[in-house]
Amino acid sequence: MINEVRNTVLSILNKNNYGYISPSDFNLFASQAQMELYEEMFFDYNKVITMENRRESGTDYADLKRTYEEAMELFISNNPLQNFAGSVFLLPSSTTTGDEYYMIVKIICYPTVLDSGANTSVVSFQLVDSGATFTTAGIVAGDVVVNTTTNTVANVILVSSNTVLLLDNNIFTTTPANFLVLKASAATEAEKLTQSKSTLLNTSMLTAPSTLFPTYTQQANVMTITPVSYKVPGQVIANYFRYPFVPKWTYISLAGGEPVFDQTQPDYQDFELSPDYEYKLATKILEYAGMSIRETEVVQFGMTQQAQQQP
Fold first, then answer.
1. CA dihedral 133, 134, 137, 138 (to 10 degrees)
2. Is the pLDDT of residue 103 over 50?
């Protein structure tokens, strides 16, 4: 989609000889445009909810809320949190989970560890441990498997044997890799508390957090889970909205010619917004390009087209 957006932007600019956007400038504008539209998505979703409450939004094919929900759910991640010390866990980041979090949806704690160990061979979509006793340990379909080496998660589809689990995600691609198997039916959602409320609850025997009713507080780039029994890496899994990856239009440089689009480059990254946003991305980039080349007509065109697309 990124190449189509760039071609559209260049075509509109070149029509009246407004100017030319270099690949580096386009990538900067593309990143800013995607980020702005991503954040607007949450505000627009709120507007649609308000419209629905006022009976101004329909159902079935006229269900605007579902359209936004499907677009937003592309950015939901479900990753184990890395343990920092004791019951303190690192928040999702590019160094811990491979992406930056925008908003935490919920924190799921798994108090019961059914099994642990390391895989002994690599088979696609399977966990194989020749020394395991998966059946004896009481593992069933739906239980959660965490690769604590790569910090990835999958669910059990089938307990094939005492030593083999079939998974819904191919998380074991190297050996050895350490793993945990967590009991899904024992999972509980941790409640987020402010620092003052956390102190108040912990001083009471009646309201103090427990294994079945855990809580957490955030400080900078870490969160503290209470009670302290949650301290095993992989026991705490975060469900969150992540930021979209930075788009990059990559190309082959030609001597004396125009750059040619090349998506085989290792740093290539397409837009992550759904194709519905292609038009909005083009108009938003045109707005930035107009400000860059100091053409008010281009800026006004981009802003007018965006205003017509508001829900």
1. -150
2. yes
Domain identity same for 116 and 168 = yes
| Helix H or strand E encompassing 186 | none
Q: How far is residue 274's CA from residue 88's CA, in Å, rounded to a whole number?
A: 36
157 and 220 part of one domain: no
Strand, helix or coil at 67? helix
**pLDDT exceeds 60 at position 51:** yes
Predicted pLDDT at 292: 53
Q: For residues 126 and 164, is the Cβ–Cβ distance under 8 A?
A: yes
- What the block records as the tokens of 198 is 């956390």
pTM, entire model: 0.76
Q: Which residues pair with 255 in a beta bridge?
A: none
Q: Are strands 101-109 and 188-192 parallel, antiparallel or unpaired?
A: antiparallel
- Mean pLDDT, the chain, rounded, equals 84
How does DSSP assign 121-138, residue by residue? B--TTEEE-TT--TTTTT
The 10 Å CB-count burial string (b at 16+, else e) for 148-184 is bbbbbbbebeebeeebbbbbeeebbeeeebebbbbbb
Distances (CA, A) of 143 to 116, 137, 168: 13, 12, 11
The strand ranges marked E within the chain are: 76-80, 83-85, 88-90, 101-109, 113-118, 126-128, 144-147, 152-159, 164-167, 178-182, 188-192, 215-219, 222-226, 236-242, 251-252, 260-261
| Residues 100 and 69 placed together within one structural domain of the fold | no
Q: Domain check: are 215 and 263 in the same one?
A: no
Total tally of structural domains belonging to the chain: 3
Q: Which domain holds residue 195?
A: 82-104+188-233
* 70 DSSP β-pair partners: none
> Which of left, alpha, beta for 198 (phi over 0: left; psi -120 to 50: alpha)?
alpha
95 and 140 together in one domain = no
